[in-house]
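Hey L., structure's done. Input below.
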Amino acid sequence: MKKLDLHGKRHDSVETEVTNFILMNDLPVEVITGDSQRMRKIVYKAASQHGLAAHPKGLNNYGSLVIVEKSNYCFYCECDPCDCHWGDY
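Output:
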């Protein structure tokens, strides 16, 4: 899985960089945002604008988001459709 690390990037240039990264690579891809809630919101927005879903890489790792095709499959409870609602991003 390809990774994009946003550490040290300026917020005003990130949306374009994330969009280009998503469109130029095969899914799933990983975007490392670090602790910045604003950066995570930008990544969620970019994914949503292209009909994709983003979710944290793990239950304890919110600083890394995985972008995938939108589906009802839940990466947390591994059910389709999701019963735990963790996958509702």
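Residues 11-24 form the longest helix (14 residues). The chain has a mean pLDDT of 85.

-- N.
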